[in-house]
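Sample pair:
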Amino acid sequence: MTVVRDGDAVFTAHRATVVAVAYQVLGTRADAEDVAQDTYLRWRDVDPGTVQDPRAYLATMAARGALNAVRARARRREEYPGPWLPEPVVTDDPLRRLLVREQLTYALSVLLQDVAPEQRAALVLRDVLELPYAAVAAALDRSEEAVRQLVHRARSRVRAASGGPDRAPQDAAVLEAFVAAVAAGDPQRLVGLLAPEVVLVSDGGGKVSAARRPVHGAQDVARFVLGVAGRADGGTRVELGTVNGGPGVLVHAGSRLDLALALGVDAQGRVTGVYLVRNPDKLGAPAPDARA
């Protein structure tokens, strides 16, 4: 019989945190799982009895591992066909439950990808996991003052754009109104929900149909969304669900998940971002047969 070391049990208890930290830095579940595996192997060389706060210790290990992995992933990003979006987390597992608990919405994951990797890591460690600045500084091999600057810059970019915390009920209401306007085919009603500077990003990964460039402006975004909805056939099933840590829409073509949609909503309840993921590699589904 295999005896599980105490360290293994500790890692299992905090594994979702390890994956979440790596995911927020890297943007894909597969890359985050690779970092988690590497973190586990390094953790096996640590005596758990010498670690006062295993959660913080493992989170800092994950942050370092994710930052080390950024360079290789950045080249893949540069070669990506069309706009790139983070992989949505839609399955009910420990990672998604942690994202929901911490209100780490998909829009926040998108916005994090627009700031420097060290800023992402600093913001997640400090604002989400609430680690002291000294611990974040040790994780990033920076001074505390430098870390404070990293966090400040990331907050300025991300928190303002994401509308702030405790927004789940309002975001859900905006999403329901958005879906209702699309279902009714009402462009004026839809435009009324959108901020004038709204941006739509569609990620097909070069494997399925998607906009090759971001769509800007309320009128153009509404036209694009209604056009996509108008092409749906009778086998399409739309359901409200959870994407990462917030409300989203899951569109199924038969038994296959075809599209995951999430919105960015500002403090005034206006939609500032529409994010459509259709790349089958990011949805856990095979690409549809092009001959079908």
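The radius of gyration is 20 Å.
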